Description:
Blueprint: H1 2-6, H2 10-26, H3 33-38, H4 41-62, H5 64-71, H6 82-103, H7 105-123, H8 131-150, H9 156-180, H10 182-187, H11 193-197, H12 199-223, H13 231-255, H14 261-280
Helix pairs in contact: 2-4, 2-8, 2-14, 4-6, 4-7, 6-7, 7-8, 8-9, 9-12, 9-14, 12-13, 13-14
Amino acid sequence: MKEYLLIYRPFNLLFIALAQLLCAYFLDANAQFYSITTGGIFWLVAGTAACAAFGYWINDMYDGDRDIINHGKSSFLHQLHPMLVYTHLFIFIFIALMAGNELGLWFVGLFLVTMLILFLYSKWLKNIAVIGNIVIAILCFYSIFSVYILFKNVEFLLIIHFALLAAGITLSREIVKDAEDMDGDRQTGAKTLPIIWGLNSSNITVYAIILTIIPIAIVTLYAQKSYFSGALLYLYYTYFTLFIIVPLFKVAVDVRYATEKNEYTRLSLWLKYVFFTGILSLLFF
C-alpha cells in the first residue's frame, strides 16, 4: 500500500493543496472559510491534484528503465496491470474535467492543457535541455496564480510574489534533479542540461537563478510592509530571512561545488524545504 501511495508523491500534493488553500484564505483580507469553500476552492484543489497525479503516474509509466538506473528499482506502477494504470489515468482526467466544469470554462481549459503538457513532458519535453524544466516551473506558477483567477479579491501583487517564488524554486530544483539523475538520463538518451552543458554549467545556472530570486524576494519584502503593523512586520521579516533567504543562499553556495549524486539529493531536499517554508509564510497575512 505504501509503494502504491508513493506514486502520487503525497507530500507534493499536500504542498500544492496547502498553497492554494492558504493563498485563497490569507491573501484576501476579507476572506472567510465559508466564502472560499462556496467560491470553489476545494474544486480547484481537486482539479489541480488530479492533474498533478496524472502527471506523476504518466511520468512513472515512461520512466521504468530510467528509475532502475537512478534508484535501483522502477516505480510500483510497473507492477500494476496496464488496464489498471489506464483506469487511474482516466479517473484523474474525469476528476479534473468535473472540477473544471464546476469552476468555469477557463478552468476546464487550464486542466486540459495542463494534462496535455504533462503528457508531452513525460514523453518528450523532459528529455530536452531547459525546456522541460521551464515547463514544470510555469505549471507551478499557474497552480498558484489560478487562485487569483477564482478569487478576484486576493491581492494581485502578493499572489504574483508567491507564484514567482514557487516557480523560481521549482525551476532550480528541476535542474538539480536532472543533475542527480544524470546517469539514468544519459543511458536512456535524454539531453538534459547537465548532459549537454556539464555539471559545472548546470551548477552555475542554478546559482544564477537563486541569486536572482533572493534580491527580488528582498525587494518584494519591502513592498509587503503595508500589510503588517507593529511587531508582526519584524516577525515576518525574521521568519522570511531565516527560513527562506538563508536556506536559499546556502543552496546557492553549495551548488557551486556539487559534483556527487548525494550532494544533489541533499540540495533537492533543501529546495523542497524552502518551498514548504514559503507556503507557511502565508500564515502571517
